[in-house]
Design a protein that fits this description.
Elements: E1 8-15, H1 19-33, H2 37-57, H3 66-72, E2 74-76, H4 78-90, E3 95-100, H5 109-118
Parallel strand pairs: 1-2, 1-3
Length: 119
């Protein structure tokens, strides 16, 4: 039984009006995962085989698909980020660890942290 245990998952998010800039930062993060065997296998088994294969043809942040970015990160306005966190909760996560995409100097970093704290 998992009673008494928290189920924690890292939830990448960016509360921003500049969706393109946040997605570009996230693509840079995701490219690192696309070269690691464990994550590649997990992504392929999760229905992203075509996305992994497309990345392999021309590796780099530009080759990370919009589909992967949308599936793996909550990027956009408050409603978008909130819905993304809710999806994690509905999948069984009891303690979503919202983490801003990118580094603290990213413009969306402070509002994302503030929104996560307020939620």
């Amino acid at each position: 039984s998992l009673e008494g245990f928290e189920i924690v998952a890292s939830v990448p998010a960016a509360l921003t009006v500049d969706r393109a800039a946040a997605a570009a930062l996230f693509r840079t993060e995701l490219q690192r995962y696309l070269v690691l065997p464990f994550y590649r296998t997990m992504l392929e088994q999760s229905g992203f085989t075509a996305d992994v294969q497309a990345f392999d043809r021309a590796p780099g942040p530009h080759a990370v698909s919009d589909r992967l970015v949308a599936a793996l990160g909550g990027i956009g306005d408050f409603r978008t980020v909130s819905a993304f966190v809710t999806a994690y909760r509905e999948a069984g996560v009891t303690l979503p660890a919202v983490r801003p995409i990118g580094f603290p100097d990213a413009p969306h970093y402070p509002p994302t942290v503030e929104a996560a704290v307020a939620a």
